[in-house]
Amino acid sequence: MEKQRLNYGQVAPNGIKGLLEIEKYVSESGLDRKIFELVKMRASQINGCAYCLDMHSKDARAEGETEQRLYLLNAWREAPFYSENERAALAWTETLTLISENDVSDDLYKEVSGYFDEEELMALTMTIIGINGWNRLAIAFRTEVGTYKADQS
Q1: Considering only the top CATH level, what class is 16-140?
Q2: What is the rounded end-to-end Cα distance, in angstroms, of the chain?
Q3: Which pick of 23, 37, 88, 135 has the fewest CB atoms within 10 Å?
Q4: What are the sequence ranges of the domains in the chain?
Q5: What is the C-alpha separation between 108 and 92, in angstroms, rounded?
Q6: What DSSP string runs through 99-118?
Q7: How far apart, in whole angstroms, are the C-alpha atoms of residue 26 and residue 149?
Q8: How far apart are CA 16 and CA 102, in angstroms?
């Protein structure tokens, strides 16, 4: 196991204020908490962020998510356990997370817009932007995996 390089929250609390504001905005937006956690899990899988996968699997389970759906998330297209709006959110997540490799097509936009109104789509998109930022911080500075405790309140 590699040693944590830097505790970004302690070193630059003002530097992460924007990401914390994104989290606050999304948590107050009414975006379905299961979708919120699935999106964070999927982006973290793509980015290979162990810390965030640990965190969001714990948070997802605290929200009532099943082990089966978490285990099969990287194969969501083949697994029958995800709703149509979850599938649209996951496709949107993959496209935006891998944006340098993808065109954000009109077809995908039309699909995701069919399940989420403009405010929900904005919250979904901000969730994706936020988790990609957190992934990059945790990976770059090797945040210690396994230390996160889910809120039990």
Answers
A1: mainly alpha
A2: 31
A3: 23
A4: 16-140
A5: 7
A6: GGG----HHHHHHHHTTS-H
A7: 21
A8: 27
